[in-house]
Amino acid sequence: MTTAPVRLLIHGASGRMGQALLRLAGDQAGLQVVAAVQRRIGQRVVDGIPHFAGSELPGVPAFDAAIDFSLPEGFDPVLALCAARGAAFVSGTTGISDAQRQALRDASQRIPVLWASNFSLGVAVLDELVERAAAALDGWDCDIVESHHTQKKDAPSGTALSLGEAAARGGAQPRYASLRAGDIVGEHLVQFAAAGERIELVHRATNRDIFARGALVAAVRLAGRPAGLYRVRDLL
Ligand SMILES: NC(=O)C1=CN([C@@H]2O[C@H](COP(=O)(O)OP(=O)(O)OC[C@H]3O[C@@H](n4cnc5c(N)ncnc54)[C@H](OP(=O)(O)O)[C@@H]3O)[C@@H](O)[C@H]2O)C=CC1
Ligand SMILES: O=C(O)C1=N[C@H](C(=O)O)C[C@H](O)C1
Q1: Cα 91 to averaged position of ligand 1 atoms, centre (Å)
Q2: Which residues make up each annotated binding site for NAD(+)?
Q3: Is residue 1 part of a domain?
Q4: For residue 94, which atom of ligand 2 is closest to its CA?
Q5: For labelling, which of 86, 139, 148, 212 has a CA lying 20 to 30 Å from the CA of 186?
Q6: In this protein, which residues make up the domain named Dihydrodipicolinate reductase N-terminal (predicted)?
Q7: How many C-beta neighbours within 10 Å does residue 202 have?
Q8: Best residue for ligand 2 mutational test, from 148, 189, 204 (most atoms within 8 Å of Cβ)
Q9: Domain containing 109: what range?
């Protein structure tokens, strides 16, 4: 018996990540993009995919999961739509507020929810290494330096803040620094330093397709699951 493809809504479709998701969705088995949503639209249908403005969200066709890579100001309506329609919600939008983080937890009572500051496997591994290093290096200075392209609006990056939470779980008190230069996709250096020595743990992303592929796989695997708050490591 063939399984019906997971029907996807891509939110933030005109953005750097939205464009990567649309480009790669065609290569990912088990899914079909049924709606692309962005703040303002030009053409109604692009490459056979219906496009909608953010204000048209309530009228989008039925979908099984939404993937959101928009901005904090676009986050609330798409989360609310998923909760209302009983659809899975996958989001990588960073710079969201504490209230929006709480809204994710509230929605997870009704639908499967996955929010991740970084959808790469490499950063998921780095996160665990940072926590282990912090736990082993009591009293060492911990600094997180993140570098991104000049168009990035939030700082520190969501990934840097998540790595800082991992370091804090290990007992460190991380400090942050942000660089904005060129077209850097995303680099995170976590340094532990003490008298006479230091350790550097570094992740360098050179293609944002790694994030898009992670989010697409997560959405296919999350759709249809029981309500709850899921992590990347639960699904990748
Ligand atoms: N978790 C992860 O692995 C990753 C997370 N990110 C995060 O994803 C987010 C997007 O990044 P990026 O693609 O570079 O950003 P872009 O600025 O390139 O794209 C943002 C998209 O969101 C849309 N948008 C903005 N506001 C609204 C709104 N109110 N309603 C509907 N759509 C809206 C924009 O539409 P329009 O063009 O019409 O304005 C655009 O399509 C950022 O928060 C970034 O940090 C990025 C990479 C990886
Ligand atoms: O804005 C970006 O580009 C990225 N943002 C995410 C973050 O804020 O951590 C993930 C990745 O570093 C790319």
Answers
A1: 10
A2: 12-17, 92-94, 116-119
A3: no
A4: 8
A5: 139
A6: 6-119
A7: 12
A8: 148
A9: 6-115+210-235
pTM for the structure as a whole:
0.97
Distance 194 CA to ligand 1 centre (A): 38
Distance, CA 32 to ligand 1 centroid (Å)?
21
Q: What are phi and psi of 19, to 5 degrees?
A: -65, -35
Domain count, the chain: 2
Please tell me whether residues 196 and 220 are part of one structural domain. Answer: no
Same domain, 80 and 101: yes
- What CATH number does the domain containing 134 carry? 3.30.360.10
Question: Which residues does the annotation mark as catalytic?
Answer: 148, 152
Domain presence at residue 48: yes
164 burial (CB, 10 Å; 0-12 / 13-18 / 19+) is buried
Per-residue pLDDT of the chain (236 residues; tens, 9 = 90+): 668 999 999 999 999 999 999 999 988 888 999 999 999 998 999 899 999 999 999 999 999 999 999 999 999 999 999 999 999 999 999 999 999 999 999 999 999 999 999 999 999 999 999 999 999 999 999 999 999 999 999 999 999 999 999 999 999 999 999 999 999 999 999 999 999 999 999 999 999 999 999 999 999 999 999 999 999 988 86
CATH number of the CATH domain containing 88? 3.40.50.720
109 residue type, one letter? Q
Residues 63 and 40 in one domain: yes
